[in-house]
């Protein structure tokens, strides 16, 4: 049995088999077909809340994240996720969806940053706010470059990897998510392409997906397309929001330990 903490309803216990069976319903729920349903109380323990009603399977979400480097954890909205999945498989067509929804995505990024209030994250969240402020002012490339530069140390802390290399982070992004409790791994899935090898001095082709190495070591401005700039800030916000979750969990465990 696994114990889940539901802030609204206390603790719940469920077996892995039960979680598997719930997922068969959760991942196929379509408000247009099934009508309005309340989110199950345990859903946020196993999924990200904005996946509820998106109608996307875990495989579709993983393709967006690992295949195109587009964050799917904490951002964007269910409607934008549906549009991304419905778009042609070409990477530029996926990015076009983000550009059309730019204002909505930027607003949601701002909301997610406001949810990051842990004192451990003060400096990191400020970097995120400055990136969104640059985005607000129309300086997408500046926003994206700041976001990419801010990510690395945060990722080392969040992934808790002892191997502090780009290669290690890329490998974490390529890991196969747990199909029962996938939420955390989907935060890292975009790293599979974000850290893909790119060495222009060895005549490597510029990656189609947003590349950390291209932005920080080569900076071809055409790589910082509007879509990739949006992806960069989304990724920082997604990682920061997951870091807030981690901080809350650690503080909760410390309180329980102290009380015991």
What's the SSE blueprint?
Layout: E1 2-6, E2 10-14, H1 16-26, H2 31-34, H3 43-46, H4 58-68, H5 78-86, H6 91-100, H7 102-114, H8 122-136, H9 140-159, H10 166-174, H11 183-188, H12 191-194, H13 212-217, H14 226-259
Antiparallel strand pairs: 1-2
Helix pairs in contact: 5-6, 6-14, 7-8, 7-14, 8-9, 8-14, 9-14
Series of secondary-structure elements, N-terminal to C-terminal: EEHHHHHHHHHHHHHH
Strand content: under 5%
What's the main sheet like?
2 strands, antiparallel
Q: In angstroms, what separates the terminal alpha carbons?
A: 22 Å
Task: Considering the chains and any ligands shown, give keywords for the structure.
single chain, mainly alpha, two-stranded antiparallel sheet
Structure overview:
It is a single chain. The protein has about 260 residues and is mainly α. It is built from 14 helices and two strands, in the order E-E-H-H-H-H-H-H-H-H-H-H-H-H-H-H. It has a two-stranded antiparallel ribbon with strand order 1-2. The chain starts with a strand and ends with a helix. Mean pLDDT is about 90; it is low at about 5-10.
